[in-house]
Amino acid sequence: MQLVPLHISALARLHDKNPPIFPRSFASSRSNNGLTQAVEWDEYSFFVLGNRTFIQSGEFHMWRLPVPSLWRDIVQKAKSAGLNTISVYFHWGLTNPHSGEVDLTGINDFQPFFDAAKEEGIWVIARPGPYINSETSTGGVPGHLRSNDTFYHDAWQDYWTGVIGLIAKNQVTQGGPIILLQIENEYYNGPGQNDRPVGVVVPTFVNDAGEFNNLVNDTDIYGFDAYPFSASNCGNADPTVWRDVATTWRSYFDATVPGQPHFFPEFQGGSADNWGSTGGYGTCRELVNTNFQRVFFHQLWASGVTAENFYMFYGGTTWAQLPYSQGYTSYDYGAPVNEQRQITAKHAELKLQSLFLRSFSDFYMTDLIEVDTTTVPSLYITHLQNPVQGSSFYIFRHNDATIKDSFVIATDFVFGSSTLRYSTASLLTWLDLSGSDMLVVYGYAGQSYEMAFELSGPVTLSAIGPTQIQGTATDPTFTLNFSLSPGRTLVHLTAADGKELAVLIADYDAATTLWQPTIAGDGNYANYIGVSASTPLLISGPYLVRNASLNGQQLALWGDVAETTTVNIFGPRALSSVEWNNVPLGNLTQTRQGTWQATISFSQPAVTLPDLGSATWRFRDSLPEIQPDFDGFAMIPANQMTTTSVFPPYYGAPWILYADQYGFHAGNLVWRGTFLHDSNTTAPTAVNVSASGALNFAASVWLNTHYLGPSDTRGRTNNNSFPVTEDLLLTGENHVVVLQDHMGGDLSGQDVCCTPGGRARDLQQPRGLQGYYLVGRDASAQFTGWTLAGNFMGERHPDTVRKIYNEGGLYGERKGWHLPGFDDSAWEERTPFEGLGQPGVGFFRTTFTLDLPQGYDIPLSFVFDSAVGHYRSQLYVNGWQMGKRIANIGPQSAFPVHEGVLDYHGENTVVLSLWALGNGTADTRIPSFKLVANGTYAGGVRGIATNNPDWDELRGKYGVSFD
Ligand code: IPT
Question: Any idea where the Beta-galactosidase domain is (predicted)?
Answer without folding.
Answer: 362-514
